[in-house]
Amino acid sequence: MDSDLSSRPPPRPTARRRVGRPSTIESGAASLATILTLVRSGVATTRLDIEREAELGRAVVADRLTTLERLGLIVEGELGPAIGGRAPRNMRFRVEAGAILAAHVDRESLAVGLADLDGVLIVEHHEAVDLALGPETILDRLTTLFLWLLDERGGKGRVWAIGVALPEVALFDANESDAFDIAALDVLKAWRSFDFSTELSLRFGAPSWVRSNTEMMTRGEMKAGAGLGVQDLLCVRLDRSVSAGVVSDGRLRSGAQGLAGLIGHAPTSEGGDVICHCGAKGCLDSIASGEAVAREALAAARDGRSRYLAEILERSSAVTANDVSHGAQLGDAFCAELLARSGRLVGESLAPLVNLMNPGTVVLAGALAHSGDIVLAAVREAIYRRSHPLVTRDLRIVRSELGGSAELVGAAGLAVEEIFAVPRLREWITIGAPRRQPSFEAFLAEGRARKRTSASPSARPPARA
Amino acid sequence: MQAVGLGPRGEKAFPADKLVLTAAEAAQARAGRFAVAIVLHTTTSDWSRQELAGIVATLGHHGATVTEIIDCGFDKAKQNHELLRLATAPIHAVISLPIGSAGVLEGHRAITRAGKTLVLLDNAPSGLRPGVDYLAVSSADNFGLGAIAAELASPYVTNEGVAGILNYEAEFFVTNEREIAFRKWMSAERPDVTLVRGRFAKVEDAGEAYRRLLADNDDLDCLFVAWDVPALKVLCAIREGAQTLPIVTVDLGNEIAAELRSGGPLKGIAAQRPYDQGAAAAGAALLGLIGRQPPAWISSTGLKVTRESLRESYEAVWHAPAPPFELRL
Question: Where is the Periplasmic binding protein domain (chain B) (predicted)?
């Protein structure tokens, strides 16, 4: 469907070549990338500042700025403050030159967003979905929603990059298959073997990056939420399972196998008999996660420990962690106690990490974290009680500021970071957009050819006689 | 009945009718003698009047005062200006309906930065953070309303026929949700149906947008109009044209209710409960003012209204007896 992209030649330079001086299109990728990065980041936006920061001459800077303007990447903006002469004109990066698509898929919901080239979300939509529907069905739904977002916003041609957050369970074998029964194991296998990123790139003709929900949530909070400007951060996701993003010295740490932050498997003080899917007893996930809270709530609804939950069960034949949050907000003592216990156990598991890392901020995100003040208060109390006083002296323990948008913000931010990373930027800057980068077009052509081959009847192995 | 749609940040809905203050909270709120301002996109629709009635009645019941009600006339600049003014006014809280997704962030942020409580109606524009830039949103289950509208339209669309969607051009969370849900329901239940869309930038232009859509798609079987006020413009345009067309819409205002009763082109309405939504918004504001954390997304489920169910639906939505037009049924 995007065959036009792979066959489209890069635009030819139109500027007449001057004697003794190579054209910018041929040799200026490095300086163009440097100048665009300076303008984008706001480090230097006037000609004088750019000359100084880039260590380039006036003529070269003028030439490169003209090229960047012609490519549609920058535009002259407002006048800056005068310093003894005419007021300089600020250059502005055109965040509206393209669009970033972001998606977030979770066990029971998905979200899509459209962002500008700074990764700032312009519009977002969330809806319920079941991960067990499998990757192709979910991808089709995301495609429908993306196309809807792009309709009247320039269409697919405006998409520069795509970022996607997927649940850990869909990415890693090593993590949490607890919520899936045996019949759904095939679905899990399908998720783990499905190349979501390539499929999206083929559908939209733009590069895409897929990471775990926890990573994208952490990136989102770092970019625009409670983790903004924090160098050492723990971003804890309290959802159906418990996991964390670990940021140290301003860098997200993913670990040797990309599995850093599996705190759901930390042992708790209340071991209990519940066996975690990892095989151990007493893991945080099996006692304090949203899944565990829902299980305990169902038991309480059945044996009458909570009148509120019993009513919910009677009305809807199911009880969720969300119902427990509502029950606590409506004053149900059992629900409040259940959330407090969950928060306390999470806090106790986080305390050793707080001692180890000495973070400046702990951000609590996910549905349980947003269930009112009870969980937050219990986590705070347990961390303060179990950690060394010196590491908690200036520690902030706060709720996520972005809520369910964090993963979208993180996904859009990652996509922006990747396309403007200097090595990649140098590859596409003379063409004007990353989707027309030759190596990416070759990747798309190869992907399409592979799909055609696998779909062709002649590609099937011959039937045995 | 549970809301099927999620909130603007993916939150699961807290039912609007469950948001009530306990006796202790009510006493605390009354002692606070709070002053609240209300900022709406318009005050001229029946929806707005009902929403206002719910807010004012609830605030009044708890001893709070409504200092002013501002009609922004769908003008983002005016909304920003008024909110910036209210940020320095001697009030405790603002209940506001943001116009569009961008362009009104500054004004809304100013309210919270000034230390006042902000509760939103209908939607939270991207960029506003729950718990930081605002306290809570009270809304209808707009995703559910879109699905109800599709269900109402379906019988009027022939096999492999064409259904139209006439929606607002602005980045409006609620109308976006309705359209997405309408499309999703049709795609799942009536995959044979082709969907086409028209847009209007101003409510007054809805009739013209309908004529353009019809000119481009003379095989239209049925039309979904995003809410009742533009639907009334479309009904006028239908009467002026040569061709009639079944339509469905959202919101049970007085005029649209009379249209439904008359048995004309309007075939069904997915009704919000604006009075309940207003009451919940006021309740959330009061909880915030006494230091409690209300749910971030409070939502009321929609009602499927046909000519036959008009009387009971009207009474459920308006909290008042149906007017004489209905009694003639």
Answer: 36-286
For chain B, which residues score pLDDT lower than 50? Answer: 327-329
Cβ neighbours of A108 in B, within 8 Å: none
Across A116-257, where does the E strand assignment appear? 121-128, 159-166, 208-212, 233-238, 242-248, 251-253
Nearest to B9 among A326, A329, A405 (CB): A405
Fold for the domain defined by B14-139+273-300:
Rossmann fold (3.40.50)
Confirm or reject contact between B130 and chain A (CB < 8 A).
yes
Q: By CA distance, what is A407's nearest residue in B?
A: B9
Whole-Å CA distances, A430 to A26, A231, B104: 8, 35, 37
* Backbone dihedral angles phi then psi of residue B79, each to the nearest 5 degrees: -65, -45
Q: Is there a contact between B180 and A326 if contact means CB atoms under 8 Å apart?
A: no
pLDDT tens readout for residues A105-118: 998 899 999 999 99
Cα(A177)–Cα(A157) distance, integer angstroms: 38
In whole angstroms, give the CA distance from residue A427 to residue A442.
13
Nearest C-alpha in B relative to A144? B184
Residue ranges of domains in chain A, CATH in brackets: 11-93 (1.10.10.10), 98-218+408-415 (3.30.420.40), 228-294+343-401 (3.30.420.40)
Check pLDDT > 80 for residue A191. Answer: yes
Query: What one-character-per-residue DSSP string does A111-122 give?
Result: EEEEE-TT--EE
Instruction: Take residue B54 and report the two structure tokens written for it.
Output: 């719910």
Its ipTM equals 0.90
pTM: 0.88
| CB within 8 Å: B131 and A399 | yes
